[in-house]
Amino acid sequence: MVDVIVWPGWLGGLGIGLYLLAQHWTSNRPLGCSLSYGSLCALGSRAPYFTSGEFERRDNWRLWFVLGIPLGGFLALLTSGGNWQPTLSMGAMYDAVLPQALWAKASLLLGGGMLMGYGARLAGGCTSGHAVAGVALLNPPSLLAAGLFFASGLATVQMLFRVFA
Amino acid sequence: MNYAFLLFGAVFGFLLSRAGATTFDFYAKLFLFQDLQLLWVIATAATVGAFGVFLLKRSRARALDGQALVYDGKPMRRGLVLGALLFGVGWGMSGSCPGTAPAMLGEGKLLAGFTILGILLGTYLYGRFHAREPGGL
Q1: Element (DSSP H or E) covering residue A144
Q2: What is the pLDDT of residues B53-95, one digit of tens each?
Q3: Which positions 41-80 of A are in contact with B (Cβ < 8 Å)?
Q4: Residue B68: how many CB atoms within 10 A of its CB?
Q5: Is the ipTM, as predicted for this complex, more than 0.95?
Q6: B57 is in which domain, residue-wise?
Q7: Whole-number Cα distances in Å, B60 to A21, A25, A27, B53, B56
Q8: In a domain, B128, yes or no
Q9: Which of B107, B114, B132 to mutate to test the interface with A (most CBs of A within 10 A)?
Q10: Which pTM value belongs to this model?
Q11: Using the beta-carbon criterion (under 8 Å), do B12 and A69 form an inter-chain contact?
Q12: Which of A46, A81, A97, B84 lies at a 20 to 30 A Cα distance from A57?
């Protein structure tokens, strides 16, 4: 696995904060990621939810945004001085704590993804929409959601690494 | 304008990677208090964002199309507490989130693909069986 270049936390946060402002200022659309998955669902579902509101048009900004993100990851890897080498590793810690069998690991990640997809819709946003953009607006529901994300993530990781490791 | 978001997404994905948010183990290290990299990232991003929003509001900046900028926060919802708690479990289990998983896939971290499929499935189940409101509102 090629290690990507990682900036100091404050610099990474500065970059993301400036990005957030640039997107909001130029497009008048606040940062958010989880609804992009609704745009992807809307490509294949005609359920009322996926044909109304933000998803009324299949060609919407959230669709293009989520398609752009992997390109950014790819560029970040190439500019880290490595070749693109697909890997099944998640890094030392998660590799050690999650089951070794691929089907079991894949099932856990699928389940974790489902919790995030369903949970983000119940909560009205994810890490970017609530914990970054919403906190930047000092919006009370987002502050609450961000706090609960951290509390629940903390409990989950503590349990995962203390009980199963 | 929609196509421009392909570029926006790429810049965001690049920054997530440089911030360490596409490195699974930083999530474990954060919640085991071994390395608070991602806490500093989120805290700095939110602080810079809050300061910038303050300046944008004060200067009465307008969007490129001349419209007044919208600063409406997300509303309180009935499912927010439960949803946020469920989200956190998935966040800790997978060492990724809806924004970072696609960037991980772009880096070649293939297991993030299963997380992405899960997020899609969770979103679909919500929209198909739970939602009473119009999409995304």
Answers
A1: helix A140-163
A2: 999 999 999 998 889 999 999 999 999 999 999 999 999 999 9
A3: 41-42, 45, 47-56, 59-77
A4: 10
A5: yes
A6: 43-73
A7: 14, 11, 15, 10, 6
A8: no
A9: B107
A10: 0.97
A11: yes
A12: B84
